[in-house]
Design goal:
alpha/beta; signal; two-stranded antiparallel sheet; Phosphate_ABC_transporter; 10 helices; D-Maltodextrin-Binding Protein, domain 2; disordered N terminus
Length: 282
């Protein structure tokens, strides 16, 4: 009887050790791929830059878990030691770990210096000529106050020498803004400050993806669209786009994962399903 109990103890300890080994992206640990939804500007930019998308074909592995926003990706990766995903660099927090790509850290300075390979523009999109409060808010975005907000939000401003905002606070009306979940936080911060200066203006922001934002601008259901990617050829003929800031795309893993860096080719192979186990990266 004593021998039987000892055997069970050994088996139990062995199983526990095996589970622990799988918790750090080690040998025998399948990679849990987390991606964004179709229409996400972050996904479009990520797949284009990494080569996951080729000839207008997105080759993201079929087994990837799809999440509809940055926060959801962070939650998925933080909850699973085997997970890997990608998010806006400006949204990076301590609950996940950003790995180096091609030996370059994902930092705002490396994005500004064009050293980090995964970077993309944050754009606003609109039709025709802007008027009234929308035009004034547009001017605020590109003012010193607006660009300082982009910097405070951990993005790279497009104009570090911008002139101060010249508005006199007498604007009124409603501005509807729709689009990228990555661009939304910085636009929300800008809108909050702008409405303090112009209390008779109401700005409504809906974060539902870059493609939805571009389409809303095309349809005229939003004064401004938000896109975290370049416009496609067919979109460029219908609306204008302007870059308001620059952002990196961080490749993130669980904090318990020992992986510190990946090559761009390894990132591509993981997200296309060519590499499926963390042991293949050792």
């Amino acid at each position: 009887m004593k021998f039987s109990k000892l055997s069970k103890l050994v088996v139990t300890l062995g199983a526990t050790a095996a589970l622990a080994a799988c918790g750090n992206g080690g040998s025998g640990d399948l990679i849990f791929v987390v991606s964004r939804e179709e229409g996400s500007g972050t996904r479009d930019a990520f797949t284009e830059i990494t080569g996951v998308a080729e000839d207008d074909q997105d080759n993201t592995v079929d087994t990837a878990t799809i999440q509809n926003g940055t926060d959801q990706v962070i939650t998925s990766v933080s909850d699973d030691p085997s997970a890997i995903g990608y998010i806006s660099l400006g949204s990076l927090n301590d609950s996940v770990k950003a790995v180096k790509v091609d030996d370059v850290e994902a930092t705002e300075q490396n994005v500004a210096d064009d050293k980090y390979p995964l970077s993309r523009p944050f754009n606003i999109v609109y039709q025709g000529e802007l008027e009234g409060a929308t035009k004034d808010f547009h001017d605020f975005i590109y003012s010193k106050e607006g660009q300082d907000i982009a910097l405070d939000q951990d993005y790279v401003p497009v104009d570090s020498n911008a002139e101060p905002y010249k508005g006199d606070g007498d604007q009124s009306g409603k501005i509807n803004i729709v689009g990228s979940t990555s661009v939304a936080p910085v636009l929300e911060a800008m809108a909050e400050k702008y409405m303090e200066l112009n209390p008779d203006v109401n700005i409504s922001i809906t974060a539902n993806g870059s493609s939805a934002g571009v389409q809303a601008a095309i349809d005229g259901t939003a004064q401004l669209g938000m896109a975290s990617r370049e416009l496609k050829d067919d979109e460029q003929s219908k609306v204008k786009s302007e870059e308001i800031a620059k952002d990196g795309i961080a490749v993130v893993v669980n904090n318990d994962n020992d992986t510190e860096g990946l090559s761009m080719d390894q990132v591509k192979q993981i997200f296309t399903g060519e590499i499926t186990d963390w042991s293949e990266l050792n």
